[in-house]
User: Fold these one by one.
Assistant:
Number 1:
Amino acid sequence: MTGYAARVTDAIDPYLIPALDGVAYGLLLFVAASGLVLCFGVANILNLAHGTLYAVGAYTVAALADGGWASLLLALAVGVVAGAGAGGLLAGLLAPVARRDHLTQALLTFGVALAGGALLVAAFGPDSLPVRIPAALEGTVEVAGHRYAAYRLGFIGVAMVIAVLLALAVTRTRAGMLVRAAVDDPEMVASLGVNPARIRIGVLCTAGALAGAAGVLGAPIIGPAPTTADTVLLLSLVVVVLGGLGSVRGTLLAALAVGEIQTLGVALAPTVAPFLLFAAMAAVLAVRARGLPGRGLRLRWGGTT
Amino acid sequence: MPFPTGTSRRRALAGALLALGLTVAASGCNSGANGGGAPDTIKIGLLASLSGTYEAVGTEIRDGFELYLKMHDNKLGGHKVELVVADEGNGAPTAVPAATKLIKQDRVHVLTGIVGGGSVAAVYPLLTEAKIPFVGSNGRPELKDVARIWTTSYLSDEPGEAIAEYVRDNVKGEVFAIGPDYQGGWDELRGFTDTFAKIGGRLANPDGKTLWTPFPATTNFTPYFAQIKASGAEAVYTFYAGGAAVDFVKQYAQSEISHLPLYAAGFLTEGGVLNAQGEAAKNIYSVLNYSPDLDNAENRSFVAAWKEDHDGSPTTYAMASYDAAAVLDKAIGAAGTNPTPEEINNAIAGLGQIDSPRGTWQFSPTTHSPVQKWYLRQVRQDGRALSNTVVGDLATVGG
């Protein structure tokens, strides 16, 4: 019996760290993609500059952090404000085309992403930048007899807090209720004396702040480089599509699934690694055109309800 | 058919003016060639990625060439040089129009630079048609006819070939080979695994074949590190460059296999990536044809001149481009007054030994790439910065 148990443990053991890492990676994708979900689900705006907002946060921490806790917190604050500001700027740029189709928005925000990416390279250079984090997070910790990066373990905790706060904010606060109401019935919200345009600006600022925070916190995992924006945008879009367009819980499930596919999936089936992610996406879309099931908050988007 | 409206007529007029302007500009560029008498200005076209993914490498290549010109009074072989720089971008689709402009419109005598092997392959037919020599300083694909193709860098399988024996002698046990799944990665890893197997080294990879990671999609290497741990390897050999090199090295240092010695083709820790990797890169062994701390006269003056205009030390990319200028300097000088592109090409073939910051090397008569010595380097603290310090000589490889 003990021999059998030992064999099972031995078989599972090599996959423990990839599985744990899948959680860390998935939660990073959740924090990064949640802003995109808010944009899409509430403001009904396809924001292809979302990855660039993440890059803004990542470059912020590279520029400000010096290895101390105070500078890391400062970078987080600056990254959030910069992200929110950039989100507000986007809302201003998008105002004239708010009632147009997604293609117009996609073209506009993609242009903003290209210009923003070029500006970041002009400001910070074409190289990948180092990110200095506090020494306590730099090392490794022991997890079930394996070494694992301390930062990633800490990130799991922080990202869970962000996920809970986000869910509470959307379901329990007045702002969250207004946002949900604006999705369900914008005319009724307008007749109550709340300007839907202001809600849109608020949502884009919040989405920008989330992307900025993700960039600061995620920089030691997906670091600042000219390719960062594209990587994050692509993975976020996959998460949004899998997550069923506009549900916090669905997004969380989808992000964790993508994280596990990218780590545990690759460890289990390395030969098909290049196709795993998109094969999974195709499979989910084929079975359920609206993405993975996600109950709880439902932020519907125009035209499908 | 409706009569042309005001707008469309104006547009047609603008088009005609534009065409006229272009024609004038083109003919202006062509005049002045072959004046006779005093040595004419030689036109050199430099094509390198000045934007996009390889901007860092492209900038080094441009700066290395310009540094040689600056140090030699803007003359190569006694002729004043007009250097025309064009942007290669991310690869063939942007490289071909830029090269076409250099060859057809600027009528350069020689082309140099080019970061990507794919760009070289795409530009190759243009070079053949125009019959001008190409002295490349980085990428190098397999080409059938290298009559006018020269490379001052290396062939992709040579770093692995040069380090294989050292790894066999210094690792007590099996070695795990891992690399990116594209042409450059296949060549780099094949150079190592083929030579390593031939001299009796054993790979730890379960099927005896290199583990390929999707490129450029892989940003998280943790699952691969778990496999390496499970294989029982005593060391790892790899090749990554750019962003993937940063991710690989940073994650390796925090992984379960961080205690295994890491051997790599030098690009893993070369140039800007080393700064981004920071402490994580410490102690990594790499093989390359150059290091800024090499002790020879050419290198001392090269590094000193480079540091006048740049913050860090020069990379192998800058050195290879500096050498491309040195090759042209000697060849143009040997080709007589006002040489044709064909005469410059013939002179390159007869050059023999070339003194370089990397030490002395020469072109292989068969592959037209360098026969050169390779160095073992280790990432060590050098004052406040990390640097690739030479710790020994490896094999002389090439041709």
Number 2:
Amino acid sequence: MDYIPNTERDKEIMLKEMGIPSFESFLEDIPKSLRNFSLTLQNGLSEPEVLKLLQDLSKKNTHTDNCISFLGGGAYEHYIPTIVDHLASRSEFYTCYTPYQPEVSQGTLQVIYEFQTLMCELTGMDVANASMYDGSTALTEAALLAIRLKERNKVVCSRAIHPEYRQVLKTYLKGFGAEIVEIGSPEGITDVNQLEKVFSDKTAAVLIQNPNFFGCIEDMEAISNITHKYDALFIACVNPISLGILKPPGEYNADIAVGEAQVLGNYLNYGGPYLGFFTVKKELLRKMPGRIAGETVDSNGKRCFVLTLQAREQHIRREKATSNLFSNQALLALRACIYLCALGKKGIVEVANLNIQKSHYAYERLSALDIFEPSFKKPFFNEFVLKAKGNFRINKINEHLLRKGIIGGLDISAFYPELSNSMLLCVTETKTRESIDRLVNELAQIKV
Amino acid sequence: MNPIEPLIFEKSSPGRRCYSLPACDVPEKSIQDLLPAKMLRKEEAILPEVSEIDVVRHFTRISQMNFCVDTNFYPLGSCTMKYNPRINEEAARMEGFTKLHPYQPVEQCQGILKLLYDLEQMLKSISGMSAFTLQPAAGAHGELTGMLIIRAYMEKKGETRHKIIVPDSAHGTNPASAALCGYEVESIQSNAEGLVDIKKLKASFTRDTAALMITNPNTLGLFEKDILEICKIAHDAGGLVYCDGANMNALMGIARPGDMGVDILHLNLHKTFSTPHGGGGPGAGPIGVTEELKPFLPIPRIEVLATESTEKDKTNTYVLNYDYPDPIGRVRAFYGHVGMMIRAYTYLLSLGKEGVCKVGEYAVLNANYLRYKLKKYYGIPYGKTCMHEFVISARKQKGKGVSALDIAKKLLDYSFHAPTIYFPLIVEEAMMIEPTETESRETLDAFADAMIQIAKDIEQQPETVHNAPQTTPIGRPDEVKAAREPKLKWEKNKSS
């Protein structure tokens, strides 16, 4: 199936009308030597055949509904209201382009405007953009903004930030010729004393994740104050679901708040596409990367929405743009928007509360087992780290659990050699008491 | 004309609910007992309080204010707005894909890893490149990844080259991506034919130059007929060639960038490979490289570990390999836009070899047909024929006081989405038209008729074009006001 409506007959009619003897004459500029290759592809398949192949591949994966998963670490399982799938499946949303013709794109533009409003509400920040690729690239673009604005080439970054986010930051900053100063988190949260010592007149920004990779809640207020004492930007990378209850970046004076909004109505999708968000204080508006929708009026004086402040962007500024961004994650922002509308003012608090209650229940029961001890004793949101005691081994524990249909916590020793034999467990609202108890009971039976 | 739909916040009414969560089934404690007060939110977030029917009507209504490929012909140059097959959506929405956590053990993810591996092989065959990474999230992200690879390659060779050459017809992302990697960007002027000026390129491509970024076919829809020499000039000077594959649709089954001498190529799955544009994203921008640049690709890479096989029952084991000597690192968390890769893979299975070849052929045929129909009425400054798209100039119409923007707006009244306008920058009053292969002769005829009617109207009654659009949900917006008095979110009591 090739989705091409025109047939050989149409082709002949068209060529005849153009007075062109053969299609090949359109390709005269292509050197003959380039025309000689063969594609090693299979023959095209019918719809039932393709569907069968995809179903077979899909079934080869063990997905999170077929087991009980306690994995988190930057990708989270949350309930998704059914209306999210239904409304986001409207092809008026997913088969349109970037809203460059506002007269026929008010749907997309209004969604972006509502998304911006919702993200400002959740984070307590002044301005939001239309979205970024994911949490890691949003954090990195925030660091780049600070480096450009402050004309300084160092950023201070907590080691408790998601390791893969730090790897992305490192990749970008190397190209950009800037340096990362990492500070440790021996007790599960960023070492504030060490932070004070690393500042210099080259420090553009401090980057902190909250809750951090270990699930622990940082003292954002204290770090924000120290950062501002040195005239650097404070960049917070936050989990939007946690903001139903946790203090939002606007309340601790963050200059930029970014994060991963996959949690807002988007599936795990084996790691992507996800939804980065980017919010700033109003002073930084014109330095912000990415698209922004704004309100205005049309020729009849009616309220409407357009993409605005485009003079920052690459299609106008080329090499002087605030970033090279072109596409964003509009369709996932739509899902986040529908999700937040569905949850509403009460629901966002309820879902955050369920995460806290269930993870604390699991934490208490698991830390009481002989095989574990908590790695840190800090307040946490929906994730925590446990270390296997004595001769117990995390990989053996996880193998045992897998046999029982449970995916245990993420072994974090590859990311943090200093935290050997430890796992990061995540408990969201999707875990029932029964499934948590099952995990506990399976673990209680493990022998060295 | 649709009535304007209020913002969802304006529909909010205290106490309304749209979704219910299960009750807490573990012994509930007070939040204050679990977390220190200083970590808690003081002011609650004012999210809307609406019922399910409110939310459903709201998003349904605003969706109806959009033009989209499913409702309207969308001849947006350089964007390849082809039909997005439904089977792709069906596949990407299978639970075995959507509910897969990126940190699940690879043994549980063999299906998706096989799919990703096989997609890389298909893209290699179509493009002629030696290896692919699927990680980049978009075309521009692929460009950035490519620039980082160029930088790493040069460093490994012990060379410091600080310049990237970009033709003046290039997409804006090209110079922006190069600058993001710390490169100095030199723009070279196209020649009278709208192609890369070989003489200028030779003079500019010095030992300081790391690479040339080229788009082929270029943004005028013209094939760079000197491509072999262009690549040779770069290579002879010890440099590399990066190809922006935004226009790959023209080449499907016709020619391969890898055979042209291109060292790095990005593909846009959301253009050439039929994944939907989603109102701005997500896209996906895999990049392909030559054998020589393979060691620099980002990690992890997907590999086949071992093949235990009898001819009949072949079992491959797919793994994520992080162990490479010279990778540039990671360009995003996890493995890329997997959902888009599933769609592209499904598309390629449906198309097969013959289908892929037809894509290029019918995309070029459709563009030339439209070009032929319009050339009597509009100026076409470059080329005698075109590849998958062409650029007209409304310069003549501008003489009558009607701009490319006016024509674009008038097309909306004919229920056609406008072409890309004012790009490429080297054409005055540019209108860039790309019909794609998924449109029928009848649709092309209807679009041509509308364009011809507009050209005639401009001669006789230009004001009718000035006043367009008249039939869309809103009239022309005041963009100056939007930028001068930025209002970027809804605020209670402040909204008029």
